[in-house]
Amino acid sequence: MKADLLVVGGGIAGLVAANAVAATGGRVIVLEAGADERYPCNSRIATGVLNVAHSDPHSDPALLRRAIDADTEGHASAALADALATTAARSMRWLRAEGARIIKVPIHGRPRYMLAPPRALSAGLDWKGRGPDVLLATLGHNLAGRGGTLMRGTRARRLLMQDGCAIGVAAEQGGRPVEIMAHAVLLADGGFQANADLVRRFISHACDRLTQRSAGSGQGDALIMAEEAGARLTDAGSFYGHLLSCDSLTNPGLWPYPTMDTLAGAAIIIDRTGRRFIDEGLGGIAHANALARLRDPLAAIAVFDHAIWETAGRAELVPPNPQLLTAGGTLVSAPDLTVLAAKIDVPAPALAETVAAYNAAVSAGAPERLDPPRTAGRMFGESRSAGKRVEVAPVKEPPFYAVPLAAGISYTMGGIAIDEAARVISPGGAPMPGLFAAGSCTGGVEGGPLAGYIGGYLKAVSLALIAADAIGSIMRAGGVTPS
């Protein structure tokens, strides 16, 4: 079998690139490990919000560039950040032209773009017939109409290389080996969040104590193949995820929603000793990463009072109050801190001392003097550059509550190193001829000291279009030349 472009992965990045190349007359084959017509992948079960670093993707590229830098603490590759900022508006136009229905919805008081129909605002997983599911079906239909081939039930196993150049992929289909040759190969199979060995290698030794807030299809095949072929990997120690109830490990109705981010950000986060160990103002993504790195990722508990439960507890898109209880999650309640400490099995004197010190610092207007410091967190869904902060309040109004927390891992933020043309690069920094990557299997943009997140969906679309442009140049030149 031969193609101009061979794509590994039938998620949003893979199907966007496949359609963009097929629309110019290229012969395209997409390999997808999932066998079902509605095969699981993160871009199918996603909520479908379209933004760049919490900003309108139609904004001036200079504004988007600043937002990317702010949300990643300057971690993002300058060349990649520039490419994404300048491609975002085009990506929105491309999606609409392909038949995507995009609407504006108010999320936390701000209008946001979202694929329609939107998900229900309820706990649990709701994706069938929703915007992302409809979009993938539409792109699959469009690809077939352009003469492209989507090979479901086909798992890529090894890159075929010749003199440093990618010339195809060895795969398995129905237990039988198959080889597909191509002028260009695009790796786009998502992150490695569902591969326990890779999660242990890069993120957490206790991966069995993280909630898979994902489709479970991200096995890291592309990363493994690229590394074996000599590609450079970026830092892969961060992931996009959220704080969840610890019950999400056993109750599928508690993921991907409700998330505990805003509630925990207004609460006191303690460990099993009854002491604070983290700045509550960092935000849920940073918190989830911090929990994953603990010796016991299930050691964290959010402690708060009735006032916080009735305010921050109701503030998220799918709020813990009342969705946590509706879905069967644990909310520990007590008339005082002594009883609460007994119920959550932490030392009562330590909890009382922690809350007293916290309240004193907050009341004095100096929570940053705590150890660790307590900063005012950004509003949920705001860029770090927006400057909007949540109000930090004392925990003093009974009844008192506690929610045992878990880190929910949605997709990994690091992986295959690429340049601004989405070309996979070698350890020496040179592009590997014929080899490209897009979407969550790549690194170089998100991550950094606080696991900065800029929005995985539109990032995947933009990288796919950037890759398609470069692959189109290869097609026009008649193929690639081995190094």
Secondary-structure topology with pairs:
Elements: E1 2-8, H1 12-22, E2 28-32, H2 42-45, E3 49-50, H3 61-71, H4 78-97, E4 102-107, E5 110-115, H5 131-145, E6 149-152, E7 154-162, E8 165-173, E9 176-187, H6 196-202, E10 211-212, H7 221-228, E11 239-245, H8 261-266, E12 268-270, H9 284-292, E13 301-305, H10 306-310, H11 320-326, E14 332-334, H12 337-344, H13 348-363, E15 400-412, E16 416-417, E17 423-425, E18 431-437, E19 442-443, H14 456-476
Parallel strand pairs: 1-2, 1-9, 2-6, 9-18, 10-15, 16-19
Antiparallel strand pairs: 3-5, 4-5, 7-8, 8-9, 11-15, 12-13, 13-15, 14-15, 17-18
Helix pairs in contact: 1-5, 1-14, 3-4, 4-14, 12-13
Task: Describe the structure concisely for a colleague.
The chain is α/β, with parallel strands linked by helices. It is 31% helix and 22% strand.
What labels would you give this structure?
483 residues, 8-stranded mixed sheet, 6-stranded mixed sheet, 14 helices
Task: Tell me what you see in this structure.
With 483 residues, the chain is an alpha/beta fold. It has 14 helices and 19 strands. The strands form 4 sheets. Strands 1, 2, 6, 7, 8, 9, 17 and 18 form an 8-stranded mixed β-sheet that branches. Strand 7 and strand 8 form a beta hairpin. The longest helix has 21 residues, at 456-476. The protein is elongated and about 75 Å long.
